[in-house]
Each structure stands twice: as structure tokens, then as C-alpha cells.
Here is the input.
Amino acid sequence: MTQPFSIAIHGGAGTILPEQMSDELKAAILDDLEQSVRRGHQVLEQGGDALDAVVAAVKVLEDSPNFNAGKGSVLTNKEMVEMDASVMHGKVLDAGAVAGVRHIKNPVELARDVMNQSHHVLLIGEGAEAFAFEHGHAFTEQDYFFTDRRYQQLQSMKDKGLFVLSESKYPDDKKFGTVGAVALDQEGNLAAATSTGGITNKQYGRVGDSAIIGAGTYAENGNVAVSTTGMGEFFIRKTVASDVAARMRYLQQDIHVACDSVIQGELKAMGGEGGLIAVNSQGEVHFAMNSCGMYRACIDIAGKLSIKIYADE
Ligand code: ASP
Here is the structure.
């Protein structure tokens, strides 16, 4: 009899409205979510490590132009892509992260390399890229990441003098998002990964929660793994991912109460829009959001697949 294992993923939260989503786009997004969660689940099924499962799942979404991570990332105010990513393994609280990388096809794999092959947790910009090239990552031109839709989205935000979550309402019927995954493997390891292009029209050099361990990503064996999506400035100040873990550890809150207390409670009261995914040490999954949607999927401990978009589903 194998030990329980499960995985959950997200493709970003925000103002995702049925009337703004074409059937074609919806089908493409659902397909990407399914491929991602199945890829990660396959790793777990074969007895692989939770960290390899979450990285495999996130990589599928980074490679899709339909999400705000890797290809299809949003643009900064300098009309460039700058990506953040992080990973955490719950066994000995190992973690790796990168911020502001511009030429790395799969930032989540680079974050894992920072964890496994450097003495550091977080590398940024040029230094992160120098490390990447020394460790076998290919230089990827900005053109690869760039999509017309992101360019139009940026122009629209510049005209308004705003910066926004990739999922927020803007005069465009396509919605895309930051991506993440959490998993429990058969050895009882919990892991989490998050990857993003950040928010549209962000000041270049801005780093969001997706690169910050404890804000966008957290994993602790015997407790919980968390990956978040939302307006990063709030998630950093509220240390959302570690707050969920702390509530479970110190207050003995269950995963559902802990996640909803943070997302529907203090974070929302501060004005922080977004959501998170979490899995506990029994493989129980929870999705929490205070926005009207979050692209999300899981395969639970019974092997049941579920894929959802809207908050009321
Ligand atoms: N959390 C990301 C950031 O602020 C954005 C997102 O989740 O869409 O960079």
C-alpha cells in the first residue's frame, strides 16, 4: 500500500469573468492546467520527490503563453520581461529563489538550482543569470517571452497610469496569471513552487512575493505547503504563505481555517486581492481566494482530478 500523495496547482487569481473569456481561451487554459497537474502527479505516482513534481508542473505553465510566467510574462514599464520564481522543500526547509531574471526560459528550474547548487536562497538580476549560465541554462532572448497581448495590456495600463495584476480588469478579454504548485509525495515530503512575470507596468527592478520565501512560497514537512498569487506588495507585508503555516503550527488550525483566515481576513482587510493553494501532510488540498476567480486544479489522494476557474465553482 503506497503512502498518500497529492498535488494542486494554480495559474493566477484576479478578476476573471465568464463574459470576458472566449470559449477558445477557456479550452486552452483548462487544457494547460490539466497537463500541468498530470505532469506533476506522474512524478509523485512514480515515487518521485515533491519538489520535482511541483517544478515539473510549474514548467508546463511557464512554457504556455496563456499564463503570466515564463513565456507570456507581463511587461515592466520599460517594456521588458522580468521574472521571479521560488521553490521550497519541506524536509529541512531548503529553499531557492530568483528575482528580476530576463533571459531564463524556466525560472522555476533556476530557483531549484539555486537551492541545490548554491549556498544562497535568493539570487537577483545579472548575478542570477550569471549563475544560470554557469549551471547549464541557455540564454533566452526577450522576444521568446514577449506576446502582443502583453504589449497591448502594458500600453493600456500606461495610458491610465496604473499597474495591475495580470488578471485584473483591463480592456482586454484575455486573462492570464502567475503560476504555482504544491505537493505531498509518498515519502511525506511537502514542497511548493511559484513563478511569475509580476504585475503589468511594474517599475523595472520591482520584486514581488513570488520570489520571497514565506510570502509567495512556503513548505514545511508535517505541516503544509503553500503557493500564492495576488498583489505581491500585500502578500509580502502579510507574509501570507508562512502565516498559513504558523496558524497551523501554533494555533493548530486546520488547513481550511488557516488559509481562509488569512485570505478572507486580514489580507482582504488590507486591500490585498488574490488567493493561494495549499496541501497538508495528509494530502488534503485547499484553494482560497478573495478575487472572483483563480485558475486552479488538483489531483487528490484518491487520484481524482478537479479543474476550476471561478470562485463560486
Ligand atoms: N504575486 C505576483 C506578483 O505580485 C502577481 C500575481 O500573482 O499575478 O508579482
Observations:
- The radius of gyration is 17 Å.
- The chain has one domain: 6-310.
- Residues 169-176 have pLDDT under 50 and may be disordered.
